[in-house]
Specification:
184 residues; alpha/beta; two-stranded parallel sheet; 12% strand
Length: 184
């Protein structure tokens, strides 16, 4: 699969297309639409499902280290929600500059301070799910390529070696797309 095919497939989910279009006006730094709302369209195409089938939420990552307060992040979340509220989807917006401040309390493991929004994408539990589309450029970011994603191969991400969480996440995906293969 090439980048253009992946993007075309992801944008066949109308909510993804709307997000990418609308988020440009918010000018959130390093803003990306990322995670399941993108890669699940590929798996859905393989099984004949609608592009948005099984999508629980739509992830938006940005990186703004000028103000690491919850108030600043919440203001960005509210702005995104105001621009997307009519889409009838759940949008989860997170400033990757401040994940290290709350991650351990929520997930029970330390998390490094990141230097970019893409660093957050790099840390997804499953290697093939590390994908994002940059809002400003429309460019695909897929540091591990698209080979495993297209073939439905779920491998642990060496950049986030939480074996317990990997198995939980992989089995959740496999329950919705039984043809996926868990490796490692």
């Amino acid at each position: 699969m090439i980048a253009g095919d992946f993007i075309s497939c992801a944008l066949s989910n109308q909510a993804n297309a709307a997000l990418l279009s609308r988020l440009t006006s918010l000018a959130l730094p390093q803003c990306h639409v990322t995670a399941g709302c993108l890669f699940q369209a590929t798996w859905n195409r393989s099984t004949g499902q609608a592009a948005d089938w099984g999508v629980k939420d739509y992830d938006v990552f940005y990186f703004d280290d000028r103000d690491l307060s919850w108030k600043a992040e919440d203001e960005a979340i509210q702005r995104v929600n105001a621009f997307t509220g009519d889409l009838g989807i759940s949008v989860e917006t997170r400033n990757q500059a401040r994940v290290h401040l709350w991650y351990e309390k929520r997930f029970g493991a330390r998390y490094p301070q990141l230097a970019s929004a893409r660093d957050g994408i790099d840390r997804f539990l499953i290697s093939c799910t590390c994908v994002g589309i940059e809002v400003a450029s429309g460019e695909l970011y897929a540091p591990n390529g698209l080979h495993d994603l297209e073939r439905g191969i779920l491998r642990p991400n060496p950049s986030n070696s939480r074996a317990d969480r990997f198995v939980e996440k992989a089995k959740d995906y496999q329950a919705r797309w039984p043809w996926l293969t868990i490796v490692g």
